[in-house]
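Sequence only, no structure available. Ideas?
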Amino acid sequence: MTLQEIVHLYNRVGFGISPSKAKELQSQSRAKIVAQLFEASRNPAPLEIDLSELRTTLRGVKMKERKKIRALFKESAKKIHELNKTWLYKLSDTEQLLVEKMTLFWANHFVCDDKNIVHFQQYQNTLRKHALGNFKDFVIAISKEATMMKYLNTRQNKKQKPNENFARELMELFTLGRDRYSEKDIKEAARAFTGWNHDLMGNFRLHRRRHDFGEKTFLGKTGNFNGEDIIEIILQQKKCAQFVCEKIYRYFVNDQLNATHVNEMVTVFYKEYDIGKLMRFVFTSDWFYDTKNIGTKIKSPIEFLIGMHRVVPMQFEKERELVYLQKLLGQHLLFPPNVAGWKGGRSWINPNTMMLRLRLPSVLLAKGEIALDEKGEFEDDFQRFNNKQNRQRKLHVIADWKAFLLNHKNNTAQELQETLLVSPLNRGTKEYLEKLAGQDLPQYCIQLMSLPEYQLC
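Reply:
I predicted one. Tokens follow.
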């Protein structure tokens, strides 16, 4: 593989690659490199924080103990922020790139939000467990998650009064897309999911008295269907495979769909709904490495932050600043904006977030400041964040330049540029980089990451 192809693959499968690692892989075949990525993600490590004390308290609490329940909710909220931080740092140093990137994708597909950390951590690891597995098993498992049942009101779905919320989103957002089913199909599917619930610890339970065991007609089929039967019938529709493949193509290949390539993906996926087989097909296809697909995607805020961290490891002295930074950039991990998730693509960039992105490398890695002279959404938010006790307008970050120099001791400035910038450079950028040729590698690195081209992968 060429250096450009390797960098492109690692940008999409992960968050970039070092020049040394990229050079090392150049002698290997595409199939072998992709196989190594899959092998590294074969047994995904769960995302876990210590919940032992919370679990013990949860098992012993009674519904009448309102004060204790409020304290539990408060502690749970803190733990969700801890899970956010833990996942970010996991992304920063994991070797299981593929499964973690797939988990990011699925978290924005099967979108959920929860204040119960016990249930929410379980949901996160269900995403991880099935990220490269069988899609049918995945949909069933997610449908039975306590977090999902609370988020889309499955718990309120009873025989006497069906709640259609989950049935509607199952088809519209998770499997088929809009206008591929009728209102009658939604009502009949909702009946099939009646009685689905969970216990206090998040384990699935079927309340038989609340379940509708009657005959249903759904997408042209009739029978005494339950929720799993509904999912089976949905997956029999080739449009389901097409819907999922289109979302994967937009996320991993290009925002603009290529009908021929998507159809090839559908042919592979529809046979068994094997996610791993589909992704292997994508990453070994010639068209994935077409120049039209390289350097064309805007990095998500998480990709942008983690990409910088993997080049220059950094530690936030005050973890709340990391939370606030995610909010400013427009993607607070584990806190989706709505059931449809983040739109992605061009929605990541507006005048305020672009200004922040271009200045952030200097702010994080060179103790730079952010000027707040002009008013705007970003400036006002940052001002509110900093106005207490007349704090300096800086983010307190410890950058590990020793690790950077150790990892890049045999790399030239040109080699660093080739792995950090993948989109074509215009004349102005080329001339600017020529003027920077005399700078040391750390300063050159900061300048590279401050360019508009670094926003693309």
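The beta strands are 196-198, 204-206, 216-218, 221-223, 314-316, 397-399.
Hope that gets you unstuck.
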